[in-house]
TrEMBL record:
One example of a Gene Ontology biological process annotation: tRNA nucleoside ribose methylation
Organism: Ignisphaera cupida
Gene Ontology molecular-function annotations: tRNA (cytidine(56)-2'-O)-methyltransferase activity
Protein name, UniProt field: tRNA (cytidine(56)-2'-O)-methyltransferase
Catalytic activity: cytidine(56) in tRNA + S-adenosyl-L-methionine = 2'-O-methylcytidine(56) in tRNA + S-adenosyl-L-homocysteine + H(+)
Subcellular location: Cytoplasm
Keywords: Cytoplasm, Methyltransferase, S-adenosyl-L-methionine, Transferase, tRNA processing
Protein function: Specifically catalyzes the AdoMet-dependent 2'-O-ribose methylation of cytidine at position 56 in tRNAs.
Protein family per UniProt: Belongs to the aTrm56 family.
Pfam families attached to this UniProt entry: Trm56
Major subcellular location class: cytoplasm
Gene3D superfamilies noted in UniProt: 3.40.1280.10
Top enzyme category: transferase
Amino acid sequence: MSSCISVEDLKKHVYVLRLGHRPQRDRRVTTHVALVARAFGARGIYIANVIDKNVKQSVDKVIKRWGGSYFEVIDGVNPFEIIKQYKKEKSCIVHLTMYGLPIDKAITNIIEECEKILVIVGAEKVERVFYELADYNIAIGNQPHSEVSALALFLDRLWQGREMNLCFPDAKYYIVPSAKDKMVKRVER
């Protein structure tokens, strides 16, 4: 595992703001948004306006087994207060939408200009105000698609593939790459 890097090696602080989470409908997708955020190098996720203990518990189980204890799920937040906080810290607000600028047109600017990033992803129709508050409205293609895939593609472009070598020092288990088998090893401490 000599190619391992830590989240600190990525040199940027990224959090995700999940809008429009509906617990009965979106629990699984919001959990997947959080898992992609964690696996692809984000530091945490804010869930706007809703407290959902099930999402937190699911992500915490993954963290306990696979590592990433730095990652946090913060639910029930006021999205405008979070955006205001990030703007005050001179962070970049990036809204992922199919209506924005193509990612290839904006990613270089984001990489060069943004050290701290709040990535906004919606569950249902996102209010116009979030488009206006964002520094970048970024399209991952211009067809209907999943916010999970949009987040994964954005983070991969942001880190330029380096996140594929993320390792979690507090992991209890790790996967051994294999062409045909499913191999999971317990970390010997």
